[in-house]
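wait is this the right file?? whatever heres the structure
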């Protein structure tokens, strides 16, 4: 079987979406073939759209943008509609990560994707909505499936099984496996404070109104 894995992150370097795709790809394993697609901000060619539509299953992995999909992914979906053949359309799955604590924050984006699937006449197979997504790249030394990412590993296992069988799965919403106050502490230490230093600001400057 041939799976189309779409990295929907607009970043050019290593992104959280790419890390999640790698983790999913390992779980799909052989003898299945995984074909990578990276729309980016440039136009996605019609030839690539037909190639993606011809896969046995399609998986979109992208960050949440204002409770919705990145604009270039919406553009791709509109173009992809006309590329499906009349029969044997591939089921669509998704992994959506967001920077807020609650994975449930991704539910509107899932609603949008489900509505598109209904319009395009394809099966929406389910997915994983991840909270505190920015931690994935910040603590890459912790593999997905271990420590605070244990539940994420289990959710990806479940999703991979559904993709391999082209069956329906539920949408699994994940909060990080540690308290909210610890998430705030990690956000300060790994993101806000380094960003402040990079811009010649102190911790006190961040508290000014």
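ok assuming it is, sequence goes like this
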């Amino acid at each position: 079987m041939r799976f189309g894995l779409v990295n929907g992150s607009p970043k050019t370097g290593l992104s959280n979406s790419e890390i999640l795709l790698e983790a999913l790809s390992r779980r799909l394993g052989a003898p299945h073939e995984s074909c990578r697609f990276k729309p980016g901000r440039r136009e996605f060619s019609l030839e690539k759209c037909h190639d993606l539509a011809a896969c046995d299953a399609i998986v979109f992995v992208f960050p949440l943008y204002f409770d919705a999909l990145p604009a270039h992914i919406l553009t791709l979906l509109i173009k992809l509609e006309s590329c499906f053949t009349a029969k044997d359309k591939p089921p669509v799955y998704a992994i959506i990560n967001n920077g807020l604590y609650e994975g449930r924050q991704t539910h509107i984006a899932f609603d949008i994707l489900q509505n598109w699937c209904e319009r395009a006449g394809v099966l929406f197979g389910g997915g994983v909505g991840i909270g505190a997504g920015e931690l994935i790249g910040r603590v890459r030394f912790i593999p997905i499936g271990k420590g605070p990412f244990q539940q994420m590993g289990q959710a990806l296992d479940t999703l991979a099984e559904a993709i391999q069988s082209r069956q329906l799965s539920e949408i699994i919403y994940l909060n990080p496996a540690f308290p909210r106050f610890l998430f705030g502490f990690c956000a300060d230490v790994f993101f806000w404070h380094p960003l402040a230093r990079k811009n010649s600001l102190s911790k006190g400057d961040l508290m000014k109104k």
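Residues 2-178 form a domain with the Rossmann fold fold (CATH 3.40.50.360). so i think its the right one actually
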